[in-house]
Write a structure and sequence with these properties.
It contains nine helices and eleven strands. It is an alpha+beta fold and 283 residues long. β10 and β11 form a beta hairpin. The radius of gyration is 20 Å and the shape is elongated. The relative contact order is 0.13.
């Protein structure tokens, strides 16, 4: 009788990986050296891809619909803008831009999610934003929006519409309705960054993790009833948003799970009690 082989054992994460340290020399992110065996910090690691929806359809205004800055436009007006905003698809883990390969363009995210992050001199990653569908982002000096020091990574298969400088000047800044909504969006992002800075200074780690979960649950729009919502990020990515280490975040999330505030899954978290989670955030 053939003796069955024991199940494969996954290697435990080292202390170095637990500190979510990226690489020694950020140029490695542009070379993508990890091949078939990416380290824990590699873009796209442990992320689950999603099926694409309408990206392959012939609707040229597909990227324009349901995007806040275009909500005042007619379908004919959106069709004109779509001529100057071709669609592009990125696979999970693919980098849209890096400090070493900057792109002077405005991205309109239609499907998927994008993580915007920076890397410190000692190699740590700081996630500054998780971009959800219906949002604009990218390096565009015309809008006062500079992202030269940022990386943008597709967390899952992603569809964007890309507008160059000339298209932004002609179609966006030339329309007072769109320009006003862009101003609102950039103002809200500044307020969000100020709030995160205050949280980092004044709130404890459990409060910051709870606040991060709430913000993500609301922004992802993946709600299932008044108290149930899903956050599709790993512990490591939540840690970088909350400004703490992965092992600390895992401990806090485990405590929340033991108290039935959340339920943990691979690559995602279900919020079971939003009211109690908000109570954890405090004033």
């Amino acid at each position: 009788m053939v003796k069955p082989e024991p199940p494969e054992q996954l290697p435990a994460e080292s202390e170095e990986n637990a500190a979510y340290c990226l690489v020694e020399g950020v140029e490695a992110l542009d070379r993508l050296p990890w091949g078939a065996n990416p380290p824990p910090w590699a873009p796209g690691r442990r992320e689950e891809g999603t099926a694409m929806g309408q990206a392959a359809s012939g609707d040229r205004t597909w990227c324009m619909s349901e995007v806040d800055i275009f909500c005042d436009l007619t379908s004919e007006e959106m069709g004109v803008i779509a001529q100057g905003a071709p669609m592009k698809t990125y696979s999970s883990g693919e980098l849209l831009f890096t400090p070493h390969s900057p792109v002077e363009a405005l991205f309109i995210l239609k499907e998927g999610r994008v993580r915007v992050f920076r890397i410190s001199q000692d190699g740590r990653a700081l996630t500054t934003a998780i971009v959800n569908p219906g949002t604009i982002f990218g390096e565009m000096a015309l809008l006062g929006h500079r992202m030269y020091d940022n990386y943008a990574e597709a967390l899952e298969q992603t569809v964007v519409c890309v507008m160059n400088q000339d298209a932004v000047r002609k179609f966006l800044l030339g329309d007072p309705r769109i320009a006003a909504r862009i101003t609102e969006i950039l103002g809200k992002r500044l307020a969000d960054m100020e709030q995160r800075l205050c949280d980092t200074i004044f709130k404890s780690v459990p409060q910051r993790v709870a606040s991060t979960l709430k913000t993500l649950a609301v922004s992802e729009h993946r709600t299932f009833g008044p108290d149930l919502a899903v956050v599709s990020l790993t512990h490591e990515q939540i840690a970088t948003l909350a400004g703490t280490a992965r092992e600390t975040t895992t401990k806090v999330l485990g405590d929340f799970a033991d108290r039935d505030l959340i339920k943990l899954h691979r690559g995602r978290i279900t919020v079971l009690d939003m009211d109690q989670l908000e109570a954890e955030i405090g004033g």
